Amino acid sequence: MTSDYSKLLNRLLKVNYMGGMKLGLKNCQDLDQLLGNPSQAFSTIHVAGTNGKGSVSTKIAAACEASGLKTGLFTSPHISCFRERIRINGQMISEAQVRKYLNLLFSLCEEHGITATFFELTTMMAFAHFAAEKVDVAVLETGLGGRLDATNISRSILSIITSISHDHTEILGESIDAITKEKAG
After folding, report:
1. Are strands 86-88 and 91-92 parallel, antiparallel or unpaired?
2. What is the tens place of the pLDDT at every residue in 40-87?
3. 63/66 Cα distance (integer angstroms)
4. Fewer CB atoms near the end CB (10 Å): N or C, the chain?
5. Distance CA 99, CA 101 (A)
6. Count of other CB atoms within 10 angstroms of residue 183
7. Contact in structure between 70 and 89 (CB atoms under 8 Å)
C-alpha cells in the first residue's frame, strides 16, 4: 500500500515541476463543483501575508480546538512530511485518505481536462477531507497571496493578514501597497 501512496505523491509533486505556478480560481472552482462544493461545507479563517502565516495559522487552530471546535488546518509548505499540510485537531491526514483523494482528483482532472497545479490539487484535497470529516472550522494558510489564491474559494468568516514585505514581486507587484492589495484579496 505504501508504494501506491508513494507513486501518487510523486505524481503530485511532479504536476507542475517544469511549469511553475498559475494564478486564478477557475480550476479550483471547477473541481469544487465536481466534488459537491466541499469548500462551502465549513467556515474558514483565512491567513495571508509574507511572514508568520504558518505560526499564526497553527496558533489559531490550536485555540479553536481548545474551544471545543473540530478544527482543520491547511498549511504550506510541509517540513518533513507531505501529510502535515492537512490536519484535523492536530492529526495529519492518513496515507489512505491521501491515496483516496489523489486518485479522485487525478481522475476528475483527466476526465474534465482540468490542468490543476500542485497547490490547487493539495487545496482541494484539504477541502474534500475537511468536508468529509465535518470540521466546524478550517484555518487556511494562503499559498502565494489572497485574491487569486486557490484557498480563496472558501467561505471565510475571518481574514487575517500578517506582516507584508517584498516577495513574489514579479507576480504580486513591486510596491508594498501593490503586494498588500493582492494579499488582502
Report:
1. antiparallel
2. 999 999 998 777 889 999 999 999 999 999 999 999 888 899 999 999
3. 5
4. N
5. 6
6. 24
7. yes
pLDDT tens-digit readout, 95-139: 999 999 999 999 999 999 999 999 999 999 999 999 999 999 999
Q: What CA dihedral angle connects 160, 76, 35 and 96, to 10 degrees?
A: -140
Nearest of 24, 43, 57 to residue 154 by alpha carbon? 43
Spatial strand order of the sheet with 91-92 comes to 91-92, 86-88, 71-74, 137-141, 43-48, 156-161
Q: What one-letter code names the amino acid at 90?
A: G
Question: In whole angstroms, what is the distance from residue 56 CA to residue 63 CA?
Answer: 11
The position carrying cell 470540521 is: 135
Which of 153, 134, 3, 156 minimizes the C-alpha distance to 71?
A: 134
Which strand (E) or helix (H) includes residue 62? helix 53-66
Structure-block grid coordinates of residue 179 = 503586494
Quote the CA–CA distance of 34 and 121 in Å, as a whole number. Answer: 13
Distance (Å, whole) CA 122 – CA 38: 13
Nearest to 35 by CA among 130, 142, 140, 156: 130
